[in-house]
Amino acid sequence: MRNSRHTLMRPEGWPDSASTPVVSPLSPSVVYASESPDALDAQYEGRAEGYTYAREGHPNADVLGRRIDAMEGMSGGVVTGSGMAAVSAVLMGCLKAGDHVVGGDLLYGRSLRMLREDLPRLGITTTLADTGDAAAVEAALRPETRAILLEVVSNPGLRVADLEGVAALAKARGILLVVDNTFTTPRAIRPVEWGADIVLHSVTKLLAGHSDATLGWVAAKDPALAERLRVFAVTAGLTASPFDCWLAERGLMSFDLRFDRAESTAALLAEYLASEEVRVIYPGRDDHPDAARAAHLLGGRACNMVSFELLGGRAAANAFARAADGIAFAPTLGDVGTTLSHPASSSHRALAPEERERLGLTEGFFRVSVGLEEPEALIAVFAAGLDAARRAG
Ligand SMILES: *Cc1c(COP(=O)(O)O)cnc(C)c1O
């Protein structure tokens, strides 16, 4: 950065400083000028370290990528322009026509769409299965199955995958196990320690944490696969902008504190909702259908996501969302502020009503991503929402 090459257009270069900044510099440069063709050869041949073109790599992506690598206990992760770019890098960069993929039937909506609509168009067949049940995943496998994609905690029902069972299957059959760790984060689980071959994130959510950067990250345990992911991400243009990486690096500094605070408030909120006789789903509660598995896999962590169901259908849901003033009714998660999402009118609106009922996503069902508010203040807002919902329902 400091001794940037002087050009006729930019003759000043970068001011020298004997002291160094404590914050990573932002390096928006798209290109990096080299000294000579020999110098460029040295770079491309790995004899010298250096950047050439931002799509292929830049300092802000590397700084962010190495931090997330360390959190996940992996190396060589690629920072992508979104979580879906990370999903695309895996599914399109590692598979070929004729391969088969098994995906969780409660994956993030766009991942589901890619499995249902886009991969089949490219000759890659897919089957959706309940990843909470290793036998159901086994039944979906075929001789040409090459990958299994799952999320540890599903959205929005917050069910917990049978990661151990599925990892054993994948290992026995030589199938790549791909884990989207967005909800759980490395604070709750490091999937690579449970047998994942590839781990990915929507960094947009809890890791960056401020709803101001759209990013992803993906890493593979096998170096050859990691290189394939990187090359495909560069070729397909899935890599990230320096400014987003710089913002996310700042967000990441407080990630542990944010996660712990949001998680402890989520437990309090779940407790409050249960005390009000509202059906609540929180992986840290004994009444969660996968409580034992959650405790085993997440080692006592339970994350910041709480789902609950109001009686009284759409009228109660409308009354709740209107009265819960100060909580953004917005389809994201992991922000500093609590956000509320209503799957029946947003993420799962394309499903037939019967299918939504089957998944338990009734008109009264909400998913909450708990943020950093004072717990008492947050619970007071929920109390006002419940009160309004009861009067409407
Ligand atoms: C949001 C999300 C994604 C997609 O990430 P983007 O950054 O929005 O592209 C993938 N998986 C999960 C679990 C998510 O929540």
Structure, briefly:
The chain is an alpha/beta fold and 393 residues long.
List keywords for this structure.
393 residues, alpha/beta, Aspartate Aminotransferase, domain 1, 12 strands, globular, binds pyridoxal-5'-phosphate
How does this model look, in words?
This protein is α/β, with parallel strands linked by helices and 393 residues long. It folds into 2 domains: 58-252, Type I PLP-dependent aspartate aminotransferase-like (Major domain) (Aspartate Aminotransferase, domain 2, 3-Layer(aba) Sandwich); 255-392, Aspartate Aminotransferase, domain 1 (Alpha-Beta Complex), CATH 3.90.1150. It has 14 helices and 12 strands. The chain has a 7-stranded mixed beta sheet with strand order 1-7-6-5-4-2-3, sandwiched between helices. A 5-stranded mixed beta sheet has the order 8-9-12-11-10, covered by helices on one side. α3 (83-94) crosses α8 and α5 runs parallel beside α6. The longest helix is centred in the C-terminal third of the chain and has 21 residues, at 255-275. It is globular and about 75 Å long. It starts with 36 loop residues before the first helix and ends with a helix. The structure holds pyridoxal-5'-phosphate. Residues 82-84, 108, 111, 151, 155, 180, 182-183, 202, 204-205, 214, 216 line the site of pyridoxal-5'-phosphate (PLP). Pyridoxal-5'-phosphate is lined by residues 82-84, 108, 111, 151, 155, 180, 182-183, 202, 204-205, 214, 216.
If classified by CATH, what would the architecture of the largest domain be?
Answer: 3-Layer(aba) Sandwich
The radius of gyration computed from the alpha-carbon positions, rounded to a whole number of angstroms, is 23 Å
Termini Cα gap:
61 Å
**Averaged pLDDT:** 95
Number of helices: 14
Taken together, the total number of domains comes to 2
Bound molecule kinds, no repeats = pyridoxal-5'-phosphate
CATH class (first level) name of the largest domain: Alpha Beta
Shape: globular
User: What is the string of SSEs from the N terminus onward?
Assistant: HHEHEHEHEHEHEEHHHEHEHEEHEH
CATH superfamily caption of the largest domain: Type I PLP-dependent aspartate aminotransferase-like (Major domain)
Kindly estimate the percentage of residues that lie in beta strands according to DSSP.
5-15%
Main sheet properties: 7 strands, mixed
| Helix percent band | 40-55%
CATH fold type of the largest domain = Aspartate Aminotransferase, domain 2
Structural class: alpha/beta
